[in-house]
């Protein structure tokens, strides 16, 4: 992102301080946004503030994706979802105030460790599956599940983030699925029906991605070669292969295969994933998963 002008910086600080935020260091910059650390007496915690420039951001983002993300963020409250506190809009900027994440994202952790040990992989897989079950119960699908959108908080727990491609109202009033024809997400994580541009139910995108993410944690690489579209589609239709370079339990391999079925009707549901013998052993005592009526 182009650094804010000397005139904009005091204005931004004034707006945020008026709402009780004491600004800290810059956490990151992008093409049209920057993220600042801040403390908040009102929320009683440190927060991250994403400052989006209306002048620099694409119109589609300002008019479509950001309003969708804000709408969805206000619907959701779960221990494994990055908490959204508040949005502030001015003439030139939109300020998104959310929970501050201190330990980066899952992809960064995999790159550092190469693979994730079974205990942590199981814990994190249970947490992300619980978050997915919850959002589906609230009528929301994420549609961009990937390692980069799974953050790690100060307790090294998973937090699902970035709902810019999320879809709400995924069920009709009588409980039938509403199909989507918006083909979004990162290709390496999407199911075959999206690669083939077929109408799909958004929850299926999230479920397939869970299988891909579990594979990446256990093996340190993607299950399907995404060098070309045709190769990716061919391998996704074939199903995952498991290298012999690392010993992984057969029950984990069979779980991945059961999630990454080429036909969506053959895939496990999130309820079934959370009840799987390997996954369920990582459930934190005293926690309950969301009740799902449409799965």
TrEMBL record:
Keywords: ATP-binding, Developmental protein, Differentiation, Kinase, Magnesium, Metal-binding, Nucleotide-binding, Phosphoprotein, Serine/threonine-protein kinase, Spermatogenesis, Transferase, Ubl conjugation
Cofactor: Mg(2+)
GO biological process assignments: cell differentiation; intracellular signal transduction; microtubule cytoskeleton organization; spermatogenesis
SUPFAM superfamilies: Protein kinase-like (PK-like)
Positions bound to ATP: 50
One Gene Ontology molecular-function label: magnesium ion binding
Cellular component aspect of the GO annotation: cytoplasm
Protein kinase domain sequence ranges: 21-279
InterPro entries associated with the record: Kinase-like_dom_sf, Prot_kinase_dom, Protein_kinase_ATP_BS, Ser/Thr_kinase_AS
UniProt protein name: Protein kinase domain-containing protein
Native source organism of the sequence: Dimorphilus gyrociliatus
